[in-house]
Design a protein that fits this description.
alpha/beta; nine-stranded mixed beta sheet; two-stranded antiparallel sheet; 11 strands
């Protein structure tokens, strides 16, 4: 068994929605993690599985792939487990519709450093497109245009302490699609891509996800919340 352990928290029940096939996209994430050398656990019991992080050694990496913008927040034990793990240095990737979750939960907004704004954020129709990488960010150094097939979230909220590494053009403006930050002792990547299985097969998405996983695998950050890295 690999020494690298990844936990993928997948949407289901109150943390699902009618628009996303979370089991399929979480399987795509799991396959990408396996290709990078991780032993992968996928769980659609988010509240109970995250609660366990408070009392057990955290995995090497956490991936959150959920929906449920009407759910309010994680149950209290799950929130405590997540916070405990992030404070100890759990690299975490938040993907796609996870950005729509818990719009009124202040702690969640602080951890993720951005997200969907009800009534403001939208996306063009799902389809082929181009994402624009920031060559000055260490995660996307050397990249330029990435070919994607996806929903391109537009007019997302992004905190000034987040460092945007991916954008797209819509209505004559550039809009953030991905950013990094730190919380507790943990590196965090927030990536708005990943609507369905075909999205994960797009060449640009494959390259970007590999970069994200490698960047998250680097050493933990010093103990300081809400820091741009």
């Amino acid at each position: 068994m690999s020494s690298l352990q990844a936990l993928v928290v997948s949407g289901g029940g109150r943390l699902g929605d009618p628009w996303h096939r979370f089991a399929e996209t979480s399987a795509s994430l799991g396959a990408a993690l396996s290709d990078r050398g991780y032993t992968v656990e996928v769980s659609d019991e988010a509240d109970s599985r995250l609660a366990e992080l408070a009392s057990e050694p955290p995995p090497s990496l956490l991936v959150v792939n959920i929906g449920g913008k009407e759910a309010g927040r994680f149950a209290e034990p799950a929130a405590e487990g997540l916070v405990s793990a992030l404070q100890r240095g759990l690299p975490t990737l938040f993907v796609h519709s996870t950005l729509t979750a818990f719009p009124d939960w202040a702690l969640w907004r602080e951890i993720t450093g951005g997200g969907w704004i009800q009534g403001t954020t939208y996306h063009p129709d799902y389809g082929p497109g181009v994402a624009l990488a920031d060559p000055d960010h260490p995660l996307t150094a050397g990249l330029d245009q990435l070919v994607i097939t996806d929903e391109r979230y537009t007019c997302l909220r992004v905190d000034e302490t987040s460092w945007v590494f991916l954008r797209h053009e819509e209505a004559g403006q550039r809009h953030p699609l991905g950013w990094t930050r730190s919380w507790g002792r943990s590196r965090i990547v927030v990536d708005a891509l990943g609507h369905d299985v075909d999205a994960y097969r797009a060449p640009g998405r494959v390259t970007l996800l590999e970069r994200e996983l490698d960047w998250l695998h680097e050493q933990e950050v010093p103990a300081q919340s809400n820091r741009r890295i």
